[in-house]
Amino acid sequence: MRSPRNCCVSLLLTLLTLSGCSGDSYSLLMQAARFGDVPGVRKYAVEGFDVNEKTKQGKTALILASAAGHAKAVEALLDLGADIQAQDNNGATALILAATEGHADAVKILLNRGANVAAKDHDGGTALLNAVFFGYRDAAAELLKFQRSIEPIDLNEAVLIAAGMGHIDIVKDMLKNQVSVNVVGRNNRTPLMAAVKFGHIDMVRLLVDNGSDPIPQDSDGSTALTVAQELGNQEIIGMIEKALVPKPVVTPPPAAPEHGEIKRN
C-alpha cells in the first residue's frame, strides 16, 4: 500500500505539469523556464528533466524562456545543453521568437552563443524581419551586427519593411551599418517607394538625404514620383522632384605649384 506521503508527492508532480492557455502541457523544467525561474531550471535539470523535451506544439524550455524574454534563464538552459537551433511546429527558433517579442537581451545572448540568424519559420519569417516589422529597434540593432550572415534578399526586405512602416530609428541604424537605401525588394520596389506609398514624410526625407535614387521603376512601371503623384502628397512630390534635379558636377581646382616650382606655358 502506498504511503500518504508518496501519494501526495505523486499528486503534486501531476499538478505541477501544468497546461498553458494554448492547450500545451509543460514539464516542471519548462514551467520554470517560462517564468524565468533560474534556480528551478537548474534544479529540475539536475533531477533528470530533459532540457530539450518538446511540447505538442514543439516548444522547448529554451524557446519558452526566449519568447518570454528571460535572459538569465536562456543562459542557464544553454549552459545545460539546450539545443539553440531547435524549431517549434511553426519552424520558429528561440531567436526568432525572442526577436518577434522584442527581447533584445535574449537576442544578444542567443546570437553570441551561435544561434542561426538566417533561420526561417514556415512562413518565411526571420528574426530580423519580425523585429523590424514590429519596430523593435534594440532587437533589430543586435541582429544587424550579424548582417553578413543574413541572406541579402532578407536584408533588402527588412529595409523595405522599415521604410514602409515608418521606423525611422531602425533605418538610421541600418545606415550606420552601411546598409544601402537603394536595395530592391519584391516586385522591384525600393525603400523610397515604400515610404512614399504609406505617406511617411520624415522617412522620405531621410532616404532622399541619404542618396535614395528616385528613378528606378517597379514591376508595374511605377516610380517613387508617380506613386507620390497618385496619392497627391505635395510635400513628398516636392522632395522627390528636387532629388531628380541633376546635381552640378564640381571640378576641383588645379593643384597649386609646389614651392620653388617654375610654371611653364
Description:
- It is a single chain.
- With 265 residues, the protein is mainly α.
- Helix 6 runs antiparallel to helix 7.
- The relative contact order is 0.06.
- The N terminus is likely disordered.
Structural class: mainly alpha
CATH class of the largest domain: Mainly Alpha
Strand content: under 5%
CATH topology of the largest domain: Serine Threonine Protein Phosphatase 5, Tetratricopeptide repeat
Number of domains: 2
* Helix-strand topology string: HHHHHHHHHHHHHHH
Supply the number of helical segments: 15
CATH architecture of the largest domain: Alpha Horseshoe
**Low-confidence residue ranges:** 1-21
Molecular shape: elongated
Radius of gyration: 27 Å
Could you provide a short overview of the structure?
This protein is an all-alpha fold and 265 residues long.
Secondary-structure blueprint:
Layout: H1 4-16, H2 28-34, H3 38-46, H4 61-68, H5 71-79, H6 94-100, H7 104-112, H8 127-133, H9 137-144, H10 152-165, H11 168-176, H12 191-197, H13 201-209, H14 224-231, H15 234-244
Helix pairs in contact: 2-3, 2-4, 4-5, 4-6, 5-7, 6-7, 6-8, 7-9, 8-9, 8-10, 9-11, 10-12, 12-13, 12-14, 13-15, 14-15
Keywords:
single chain; about 260 residues; mainly alpha; Serine Threonine Protein Phosphatase 5, Tetratricopeptide repeat; about 0% strand
